[in-house]
Amino acid sequence: MKFLNKLAVLGLTGALVAACSSIDLDATKMMSLSGDNFQKALFKEYVDLARSEDDQADSRSAVYYNNRAKMAAAGKDTGPQELKDRKIPSSAAADLAAARKELTAALAAGAGKSAPEKAARAQAMFDCWMEQQEENDQPKDIAACRSAFETAMKGLGGAKPAEKKAMMEKEFIIYFDFNKANLNEAATAVAYQVMAESISGYKQILLTGHADTAGDKAYNRKLSEMRVNTVKNAFAEIGLDPAKIKTQFNGEDMPAEKTADGVKNQKNRRVTVVLVK
């Protein structure tokens, strides 16, 4: 349970959040705007992000977005944040790099003038995606920021990053029996298929573990980690380079099929295997 949720249960959320607020957003919102339409739209986007993070007691992110809002208000060109400014997991770096390249190209082509609100939305949501990916503990928030970015980019005529890298990746899915982390016969066959494909010059193998909603959420996260480790060890045993294997695990948070809590679902008991060129 998050810190704020605990406060809400105690009926203390409003008072304590107000007491520990790290920014004066009211003062920021009263600033005169001297930039163009893109920067004015960007100001609004960053104020909204700052407010959201402040409400969640994330003072570091609230201060960051508040400062970005002030820069936009002053008409300064902030640009989308650079990847080197955050500690991004290696498994997400390629997606974010491709997204930033696409965004900067759109801005350089004049998207800020031709579609200022959509361009501002794209930049703010890219920064949001970066921030959530660095924290890397709320898959739903990562997905929400990324989806908002991709929607805004489509409004600018940009393609989704996933479409650009479709020719560079190949995905496999290894399914597991209920409450199990060992490879069954079908899963072993997929493992050998991955080994055969990886000979074609793939530089990285990304493993992501999942579980269905049956059972305790914390246990399911651990179970998804166990499944990933089983696959990783199996790959190492059959000759794949462990240095190329990157892992992450989502428990029940990123289902292939959405279900109610407590539902057994084989499609959600899985490890996705992505080969990256």
Number of strands: 4
How much helix is in the residues?
55-70%
Distance between the termini: 38 Å
Structural class: alpha+beta
Total of helices = 12
Q: Give a quick account of the main beta sheet: strands, pairing sense, barrel closure.
A: 4 strands, mixed
What does this structure look like?
The protein is α+β, with helices and mostly antiparallel strands. The protein folds into 2 domains: 3-161, no CATH class; 165-276, 60s Ribosomal Protein L30, Chain: A, CATH 3.30.1330. Helices cover 55% and strands 9% of the residues. The chain has a 4-stranded mixed beta sheet. Strand 2, helix 12 and strand 3 (245-249) form a beta-alpha-beta unit. Helix 4 (37-55) packs parallel to helix 8 (116-135). The longest helix has 21 residues, at 217-237. The two termini are 38 Å apart.
Explain the layout of strands and helices.
Blueprint: H1 3-10, H2 13-19, H3 25-29, H4 37-55, H5 59-73, H6 90-108, H7 111-114, H8 116-135, H9 139-155, H10 161-164, E1 169-175, H11 185-198, E2 204-209, H12 217-237, E3 245-249, E4 270-276
Parallel strand pairs: 2-3
Antiparallel strand pairs: 1-4, 2-4
Helix pairs in contact: 1-2, 4-5, 4-8, 6-8, 8-9
Short key terms for the protein model shown above:
277 residues; alpha+beta; 60s Ribosomal Protein L30, Chain: A; four-stranded mixed sheet; 4 strands; elongated; disordered N terminus
